[in-house]
Amino acid sequence: MSNASDFAVQKQHQQYSIVEYIGYNGGGTCGYCHKEEANPTNIGMWARSLSVSHYNELLDRGIRRSGKYLYKPMIANTCCPQYTIRLDVNSFRLSRAQKKVLRRMNDFLQKDVRPNERQKITEYNVVKKKTERSTISSNSQVKRVQDNEEKIPLELRKKGRKKKVLRQERAFQKMRDKGINIMEAQRIRREKEESRRRTLNSFIITYSPETFKHKLEVRLVDVNSSQFYETFQESFKLYEKYQTTVHHNASCNRNGYRVFLADSPLFSDEKGGSKSMALGSYHQQYYLDGRLIAVGVVDVLPRCLSAKYLYYDPDYEFLTLGTYTALREIAFTQELAKERPQLHYYYMGFYIHSCQKMRYKKCFRPSDLLCDRSFTWVPLEKCLEMMERYGERIEAFAPDAPVAENCPIESVRCLYKMNILSYQILLNLPDFKETETFMEEYARIVGPVAREMLLYRN
């Protein structure tokens, strides 16, 4: 692959997206449910260099990166189907639980308030009861529990809806009796509620040394900057602590960390240099009183901020740093959208319905899931209904939408012996003999950008 790297270096005045196709990969132990998977679970390729525009297009076809490795989960094969999930930050509304997380952080920063032991015990008992209930092994017991959980709340909900409708009708009748325009009254009420609704940014408070007990700083560090390498050891030590404590992984090392979270193939192909920051790969570092407590790995792309990974200091787990940092990333995306209006989506990676650790993502609304056949976006609520009805393996959330456009195989752009040419021309070269069978698969997976990216062929 050195020829491709040399090519990228020699073409100093123009950078190219260069990928090498790997094909089917995976199998072994699932990283989510820990079951053994006999079949390949993803299709992958190596990216030697990749423009932010092309990567944004690949994200919209269900492809994500891990370091310089690009992969697309195969929903039909994997035991835990993975769906790309995104949030429109312009429409984001805070939930009550998310406001609680923000208030808890602010109380800690301003007053050094921490959850007391009573709260910890209560939370432990709730988790313990849920765990015990989930371990019931008898089928008859499970059926009785499910019957009770399904039937009783449904009846109560029906009664609740009837009462709500009756109350609403009585209120409307009183308004009609007084000659009040109901539509106008509802509009005024909605406007008042909207004005009272607190924005995400209103919870992000500015540090004051006179009144604050703690100082939280969020630093955005380019992975190609000197600042990144100056903080590399500090970041790795935090990652090592997180992996050993939270995931019980004692085998992590500096090289693995670098390949997974530091290496990035991305370069900016954005025209004009007037923006306050460049598109590309960054680490958002969270410093509490000068101590690094969390790092969010993100890619800033033309139409979205893609959250790649988060690791944090387990000593500060009481601050619910997973949710808090996600909210800060949403706020950051909202700020980016002011300068780049088309950049208003927050990509949260993959949503896995059967994985409890992943299901928190559905609390960020309004979100969409990516249909794996049409590559169109479908509202999360509709997708959840389909998964509850048909099971979590849904290959088409938008079954009536046309199948996504693919790239004709002859139009695939290739890099061969330092030359750029279409696959159709490559096949006619006297010194080239096709021995691979993956070209149609590559064109189907990558889609229209296969006409622009360079596929390395030797």
TrEMBL record:
Residues 29-100 form the N-end aminoacyl transferase N-terminal domain. GO terms for molecular function: arginyl-tRNA--protein transferase activity. It catalyses: an N-terminal L-alpha-aminoacyl-[protein] + L-arginyl-tRNA(Arg) = an N-terminal L-arginyl-L-aminoacyl-[protein] + tRNA(Arg) + H(+). Keywords: Acyltransferase, Transferase, Ubl conjugation pathway. This is Arginyl-tRNA--protein transferase 1. The keyword Iron does not apply. Involved in the post-translational conjugation of arginine to the N-terminal aspartate or glutamate of a protein. This arginylation is required for degradation of the protein via the ubiquitin pathway. GO terms for cellular component: cytoplasm. Residues 234-371 form the N-end rule aminoacyl transferase C-terminal domain. Its EC number is 2.3.2.8. Belongs to the R-transferase family. The lineage of its organism: Eukaryota, Metazoa, Ecdysozoa, Nematoda, Chromadorea.
